[in-house]
Design goal:
homodimer; alpha+beta; 4-stranded antiparallel sheet; disordered N terminus; DNA-binding
Chain lengths: ~250, ~250
DNA sequence: CGATCGCTTGACGTGGATCAAGGTAGGTGG
DNA sequence: CCACCTACCTTGATCCACGTCAAGCGATCG
């Protein structure tokens, strides 16, 4: 029994590029056969972007629709003097450019933080945007997705505007955990965290040095551990209390 | 001639509660007769909220749809210890709760900053959300509106995360100007700014005292003037340069 | 005419930035 | 296998932008 369960886990999590996306979908709805097939078909067209390259350049009018299979990406904006702000992250299972609201006015660069494998989601985007009658569950998921993302944005504004460095850092670590968990990539409070401290700083509005010291304090207080690319949350309750974090439930 | 022009201005800007909204609509599209009538009909049901009251309480699932006729409101979130962050402002001509994406997960309070007159926009919201075939222009405006607001959110994130106090303040003053201008309520770089310095601080992630000093510097540098509820932008170009502001064009 | 609200100013404290210098690990070429 | 490089993390010293505290000031209002 145990062996077979492990096998399933292995099959789902390691082998199939659609696994994180499927995991997200199935965490909130079931899928019709037709929908299953649409998702399966995504694997037919995989694209790889190397670490540091741009998936979407600022100013391009339409974002090609993708679903992240592996790796992390981010949306960011830069100032003329080099200051940069990471607006949001794209994790495995997240979609890029599928939800509408595309316009060059939203001038953002989308960059690959690690090497990233992307599934071409053109068909998926068509189904979602034309409200295809035979894809009710997928459409429902993306409706909720829009709400979920909006909430993330608002959390981010509160984080940047009102939280201290310690609170901000804790808040982001919790957010990333919950998102990785939804994609089936976090277990027992532990998930792969591939960001450099410099990138964390760019997302949190803090300097690299201060991120380092802040995380040392979180570690010292027994709240988290960060080692060789993995984050572990030891004391979820105290973490949530520290930064007034509330899990997003849609 | 001049007299009659003034009269028009008077009629449009002072008398009709739908004027700011109409001005926004017409700045980007024409309207069919049917659409005109729908907008006119908004005046039939006006609601007033007193300064400081809540238009929408955090946690309520659906936001009643309104269009702001007069006054300013804001969306904000609070922390248990009393810290507050203003997420965004609602100015005359702005809609509240008309765009979809409503959900209790987006826990925000909407509060009246000044006394606010709101037009009941139930019918408008129905038309927009059901994509009524006979309201093509209004639907187009709200499609663009979603993009516009999103861009504002991203600007806000950049502002809070990466700009200095001086830059932030300048950036917000420019944003508010451009929005008032679209509603026909700014002329020659001058518009009514009804916010207290404390409220500006809550939007900018700064303390009241620092907002005061920052605005003094902007004034001292000859960039703006703030007097008795009016903001004037003297040197738009230097202001834009100072904070890398880019007008949102949708 | 006090009371309240918002603006202003000064003195002082501090969170986080900046500067500078190692340290460590993986990666590459000889 | 070693020597070197580069990317990232860590640490200490110092600086400064902004917060906090406290007081006063001018309007508006009942």
């Amino acid at each position: 029994m145990i062996a077979s369960r492990l096998e399933v886990v292995d099959t789902i999590h390691l082998r199939r590029p659609t696994a994180p996306f499927l995991c997200r979908l199935k965490s909130s709805v079931g899928l019709t056969d037709k929908e299953e097939r649409l998702v399966e078909a995504l694997q037919a067209d995989i694209h790889t972007y190397a670490m540091g390259t741009h998936i979407h350049a600022e100013g391009d009018s339409t974002v090609h629709p993708w679903v992240v299979a592996t790796g992390w990406a981010c949306r960011m904006r830069a100032l003329p003097d080099g200051r940069r702000q990471i607006i949001s992250f794209f994790l495995p299972g997240d979609s890029i450019g599928v939800l509408g609201l595309q316009h060059e006015a939203v001038q953002c660069t989308i960059a690959a933080i690690t090497d990233v494998e992307l599934l071409n989601a053109t068909r998926l985007a068509e189904a979602v945007n034309h409200m295809a009658a035979d894809m009710p569950n997928i459409i429902e998921v993306f409706r909720k997705e829009a709400i979920y993302r909006r909430r993330q944005q608002l959390d981010n504004i509160l984080r940047l505007g009102r939280l201290t460095a310690l609170e901000r850092t804790a808040h982001l670590i919790l957010e990333l955990h919950d998102r990785m968990e939804i994609a089936g990539l976090a277990h027992d409070g532990r998930y792969p965290l591939l960001l450099t401290q410099s990138q964390l700083g760019e997302a949190l509005g803090l300097s690299l040095v201060h991120v380092n010291r802040t995380m040392q304090q979180l570690r010292h207080d027994g709240l988290i551990e960060l080692k060789s690319g993995w984050a572990s949350i030891f004391d979820r309750e105290r973490m949530e209390l520290l930064c007034d974090y509330k899990k997003i439930v849609v």
